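Holo prediction. Input below; ligand is zinc ion.
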Amino acid sequence: MTRHASKAAYLNEIRGLITKMHNASIGAAYRVKVITRFAAHSFIAVHNKTGLRLSYHWAALVYVLLTYFSLVPISFAADDPRPLEVKEVAPGVFVHKGINALMLAENGGAIANVGFVVGAQSVAVIDTGGSRRQGEALLKSIEQHTDLPVRWVINTHVHPDHVFGNAAFLGRDVAFVGHVRLPDALQQRFEHYLAANRASMTERLLAGTELVLPTETVADVRQIDLGGRILTLRAWPVAHTDSDLTVFDETTGTLFSGDLVFLEHLPSIDGSLRGWQKALDGLAAIPATRVVPGHGPIDSPWPAAIEPERRYFDALAKDLKTAIDAGIPLATAVQTAGEGERGDWLLFDQFNMRNATAAYAELEWE
Ligand SMILES: [Zn+2]
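Structure of the complex:
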């Protein structure tokens, strides 16, 4: 540690560091590391009687320790989720970009794109993220951007990276909205999702994550009004899943497609390949100017954003049909189906064979 002209200069440096730690998006572990290092330096200085006069060091040490202990309860008790980083992709439309990965401890399950739309009277949240903790971080971010209340929490489908944050919005005057088949889908799968993700994400990161069912459902089309701002919700036939719902902000032409659109991240078929191919035609007819896909770049041109996915499905279907017609069994066919698309997608190995397996079983009956 460098020598300081005075006790005030020394304390100022420490104070500056602590302010920086408060402002920066860094975890409790890092704070502890930095503060411990400062404390260690002070001890060494005291022991060697070098640098500043002894009393300065003791004063600094006490200051550091007091700050440390005042930070600890905040950092560890609530695990201190920072406001989720969001981008305003259109006026009043805020989106957090998930990372292209599986749900793991290192990403806290924050892999899906989630967002919110601010009207003149209320806010609608579209998907809540991969844990209650991420839902809380999203709520903090909303509170940074508006004083208006969240009145709607919309889930685009049943998958855990989109619904695990719901519990963060409980206890408020909020309607949870989803596809008419979402309640059944959640009831059948939620506990399984929770158990599987406890293994991959850790118990601690999933603390408080619980099943929150829709309080209102959409069977076809429904509009909600945020105050001078209409969102059109549309329920789709089986495609990515059996509970796909899209949200269209009429004001800015922004379409939240949920996982009906994947970019970069290979689509995962948990519904029907043929159903999804058909849904793409219906989606393309929506007069949007941009799409917020379930995964991938959060401000993508419409309807061009559909094309990579359409190409992948066409290739996968063609390969599988050829194999089926030639009498090649499922176990062999899925080794090569869709391989021509490998270079164009992330997470290809994690999802392609599973997609091919599901699609083979579907196409076999055509
Ligand atoms: Zn999904």
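The domain at 87-304 is CATH 3.60.15.10 (Metallo-beta-lactamase; Chain A). That is the main takeaway for now.
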